[in-house]
Structures
1.
Amino acid sequence: MGKKTVLITGAAGFLGSHLCDRFMKEGYRVIGMDNLITGDLKNIESLFKVADFEFYEHDVSTFVHVPGNLDYILHFASPASPIDYLKIPIQTLKVGSLGTHNLLGLARAKKARILVASTSEVYGDPMVHPQTEEYYGNVNPVGPRGVYDEAKRFQEAITMAYHTYHKLETRIVRIFNTYGPRMRLNDGRVLPAFIGQALRGEDLTVFGDGSQTRSFCYMDDLIEGIYRLLLSDYPKPVNIGNNSEITIKEFAEEVIKLTGTDQKIIYKPLPTDDPMQRKPDISKAIDILGWTPKVDRSEGLKITFDYFKSLTKEDLYKKEHNTFEKYIR
Ligand SMILES: NC(=O)c1ccc[n+]([C@@H]2O[C@H](COP(=O)([O-])OP(=O)(O)OC[C@H]3O[C@@H](n4cnc5c(N)ncnc54)[C@H](O)[C@@H]3O)[C@@H](O)[C@H]2O)c1
């Protein structure tokens, strides 16, 4: 039997690149696809030397063609941080809707199983805590975050429709805040933002009074959960995330301690629709996938901090992703 082939969209991004590494390690033939709108080829450059890896620079919101057989598709292409999707709102809506539709069509044509990357943002600013998969969410469709949240909600709906009506094999992972090497320092997510500020000797900015909570999952744990979900037979959404919850203020203090700096915390107004609480209920992942997170925050933060420390000064001070000018018109 030949090697199984997997198509990974968003392959040059943070999570997509780690998925490429994992599937290469598991002995798959990997086809990466990305338009590089928020990704970086540096994340996958080591794979270009490997025979079983191929890369297509392509926007998946337009028709997607891949020659030959495909066994699995992992759809991870999408701007994912608030800074990104506020700058490129239309592209965000398109990749969640048109992009997902194109990839579902491709999966159907190839008789492949598809797993789509959804998000805890489908719960919006949740009224239920911790969030179970049965909770429908509290999303403002016309608020600034609506472009991302609603694109992902549509993505889930169309994925379930293909499952129900076309009997396509589908998987939906609802990812809670994940961190690790290859995140961009300037992407506006709280963890790289704090570490970047600490490394530049700036005070750490907390939005609101810092009492809002988040739960951070180290990327190795997430990738393991996604791998198990893909190979399971469960078609409905599954939360994957770490259920150890921390307030943003406590988290800022942890980063200051870790970096050994003496920065202060400064407070700014809370952005519109910023969720106050985030903590996954992971009972389904435990029961169905036998999965639990293994890496605790102190260990994961140390690895991530060492990665950010190794970046160049240029990366440390870069304000904007280098491809935005090409796309924002
Ligand atoms: N990192 C997290 O904590 C998190 C949480 C929830 C959900 N997710 C989801 O996981 C996926 C990956 O997120 P990430 O953190 O790796 O973000 P990322 O920005 O690092 O990666 C996304 C990748 O998708 C590519 N992309 C975007 N639009 C595209 C298009 N139209 N065609 C082709 N490629 C395109 C980008 O260039 C980038 O390489 C996203 O779907 C995101 O919504 C991530």
2.
Amino acid sequence: MRDLIIRTFVLLFAIAMIAAIFVKSDNHSSAMNFNADNNPLLAKWEGPYGGVPPFDRVQIPLFKPALEAAMAEQLAEVQKIANNPAAPDFENTIAALEQTGQSLDRVGTLYGVWGATMNSPEFQVVQREMAPRLAAFNDQITQNEALFKRIETVYNSPAKAKLKSEQQRVTWLYYTNFVRAGARLDANAKKRLSEINQQLAGLYTKFSQNVLAEETDQFIVLKSEDELAGLPQSLRDAAAAAAETKKQPGTWVIMNTRSSIDPFLTYSDRRDLREKAWRMFVNRGDNGGEHDNNAIITEILQLRAERAKLLGYPTHAHWRLENAMAKTPEKAMELMEAVWKPAVARVHEEVADMQALADKEGAKITIEPWDYRYYMEKVRKAKFDLDQNEVKPYLQLEKLREGIFWVAGELFNFNFSPVTNVPVAHPDIRVWEVTDKTTKKHIGLWYFDPYARAGKRSGAWMNAYRTQERVNGEITTIVSNNANFVKGKPGEPVLISWDDATTMFHEFGHALHGLNSNVTYPSVSGTTVARDYVEFPSQLMEHWLSTPEVLQRFALHYQTGKPIPQELVDKIKRTSTFNQGFATVEYLSAALVDMKLHLAGAQKIDPDAFERETLAQLGMPKEIVMRHRLPHFLHIFSSDSYSAGYYSYLWSDVLTADAFGAFVEGKGPYDRAVAERLRKYIFSVGNTVDPAEGYRAFRGRDSKIDALMKKRGFSPKT
Ligand SMILES: [Zn+2]
């Protein structure tokens, strides 16, 4: 539950914007000298490794004309296929479609990178204008009747049975995606559908803007030592640096973002300030006024319900889950409910532990949501004698990067070597070439953009700049990992937390999923798998951080160079199920509300009331708030992608926990035979096989929930 995995097309619609500028984007400048023939954003990628993204040639005014030209080009390509006088077959229809839109893929990659990591008011103007137009463009393709007829003919043709299994799967995917996008509707319904999609694209943009505005405009200024009580030095330094950017010299600023708020709630001794910070954070988008998202949510939900009905589904949730691994909302709910009760029971135990400690200290308080992280940390120290700050000196960013490279070498025979001859979007970004250790064959490129900066969205994620495929030639992949670590002073190592190190392994898991891809058709390549399956490879990789092989080699003290002491490792291990009640309930409450919201149908929903009533019915512990309250739940309201899909992290984690068991039952985490099965059936196949079948081939059976319950320390019988 660390990130959104981002692919180009999700990005086109999902990227948040900061300023609410409604100016039309006719931005004249040197870009006026470019047309579709010489716009560098449209050009074939040049340079080594089959060409690399021209990050050095991006100018914001080039985006709009490039996107327009690329969309026009793809429409023309698609029309040519639709008009083909030859009888439809796989090659002249499906394979031909797989070769369209290459210019848009290239521009879209750059556009996505700028949206997520190089954003600016000038760029936001372009996003605002282009979001609905890109939505309309997608509909123009899926609503092309002649094209759909051809796809349908190939899909229903007896010749399909003779195709290779990957080709059959791609055909099925095209057919299903077109039907699901309304290809079978009559002209009026299609028109309404396209209106809805454009309206939604605008609302998603506005929703994201509002959240970002409240995260940017609201902050807490601390003015005295007294107000800093309890905060470790690293946090004080970060708050002082934030004060500089907020033009509040001589003070300390706590920003309204998770990376700033969570540590403050963990360490601040000032209960009044913890409450203030907590209230600010959980009310983003819910404060009335111009950035309030409640009315937007009501509108989004109504449009989604109308669209689902139009497409012939009972609800938006049924539409979204049809092609997911879960298949139905009921299956997803069943899993969530199985975990919910034991997780809530654990929360009550955790709260009892915290209350006892507070009573013993004579605090004379009842545990409230703003006390949870603070007392949790105290209980961790009291019960396990583990101070998170003791671990940090052993977790150097660059050493851990070497650690993940080493793991990739052991599991997948990959070698990473640094590359300096390719352009990057920002000087902090570095690039490595990935090759096979034995054959030296080129596999792909890995871009690493580790540091926070203005214009870069928060969190951590993976992105594919180019997917592996063979239909347009032997194309190798280009992937990136992105994070928001605070850049250290020159020459000083960047130290990160255990959680952040886990996230690094997670995102690298997505990258490895892309790098291992070995398919023919781009639309089933790498990480283009079902939403509730895609977090499986990434969550699985988290397990390798705590292996002794990694810790002894790479968790080295930044001053002494000595490996992390076994005693500390043992303590970390003993705490592996600590606080899982909180983590599970915080996440699962949001996932349950997401699903129930999208099962509610066309009724007019008041988000505040719905959230409150649903949580009451669920028996939500009063000491915890949903990880994302509805007015800022970007996963489900900044695009369709994770809507009725936030359960995916839990669904994937069932597979993750169960899959790691295959290593444990074998020769351990570095068992070559199990790793080879993992590569063969999971990491290399993309979306060429049904995920349940792929999993069965790897494990020899279906997944079971037991390993997940054990991993989180829950008894399944509770
Ligand atoms: Zn992920």
